[in-house]
Amino acid sequence: MRARLAIYFSGLNVEFREVILRDKPASMLEYSPKGTVPVLVLSDNQIIDQSIDIAYWALRTQDPQQLLPESLSSCSIEMDQLINENDFEFKPWLDRYKYADRYPEYSTTYYREQGQQFLFKLDQQLENGAFLFGDKISIADIAIAPFIRQFANVDKSWFDQTAYPRLQKWLADIIESDAFHAIFKKYDQWQPEHKPIFFPSDQYSDRVVLSEY
User: Fold this and answer.
1) Is the same domain home to 9 and 45?
2) What is the number of domains present in the chain?
3) Residue 148's domain spans which residues?
4) What is the CATH number of the domain that holds 203?
5) Which residues make beta-bridge pairs with 48?
6) Confidence (pLDDT) at 46
7) pLDDT at 209
8) Could you tell me which of 120, 212, 193, 129 has the C-alpha nearest to residue 159?
9) 8 A C-beta contact, residue 6 and residue 139
10) Any bridge partners for residue 208, and if so which?
11) Dihedral (C-alpha) 155, 156, 159, 165: value to the nearest 10 degrees?
């Protein structure tokens, strides 16, 4: 989802192939034998198969809304640290919270409480503006919001009554945005004989993204 958001904000155009992981096309496995999505295939056959790396690639290629801060600035370092905390500390708790039956060592509530520590941190971060780093959306927002959405949706009624008003509004504003609606357009499963589909517009591109909701 964050890869799509970054491509949307970049203004780049890609050929899009929707895949179903239980029915992976052979061409996808040729590009990326590990068999996960998303996979970005560039015109020189370079492969990028991590969502955050695709997001950075898109915005480093073209960033008309300046979602990336100046390289090596203090803001850039702080954003990278927050995204890394999301990916490597919060996400493991998110996975355990979502699939608690697969992790019977602790209760669902325990896993939620561990993840809440990051929610609290984000809510405090939002004291300074509508977004995580001020009043303008950035790479940090689009990289982290999809995972907070997943966490919230495990038990939406619980999330809605939590004492994180800034975080709740931040997430709602992103989910209700034009960008978020644009990336949720539904596509049929890709087949080799299909006419190419381009995202976010119908203009030609020599890049290919293999993805799945």
Assistant:
1) yes
2) 2
3) 74-178
4) 3.40.30.10
5) 40
6) 93
7) 74
8) 120
9) yes
10) 15, 41
11) 170
pLDDT of residue 211: 72
Q: CA-to-CA distance for 63 and 45, rounded, in angstroms?
A: 23
Q: In angstroms, what is the C-alpha Rg of the chain?
A: 18
Residues linked to residue 16 through DSSP beta bridges, in sequence order: 197, 209
pTM of the model: 0.92
CA angle, 148 then 130 then 169, to 5° = 50
Q: How many CB atoms lie within 10 A of CB 61?
A: 14
In whole angstroms, how far apart are CA 119 and each of 39, 80, 129, 165, 168?
29, 17, 16, 11, 10
Instruction: For tokens 């596509």, name the residue.
Output: 187
Running along the chain, 213 residues long, what does each successive block of 10 average in pLDDT? Answer: 95 91 90 90 92 96 95 91 98 98 97 98 97 97 98 98 97 96 87 89 70 55
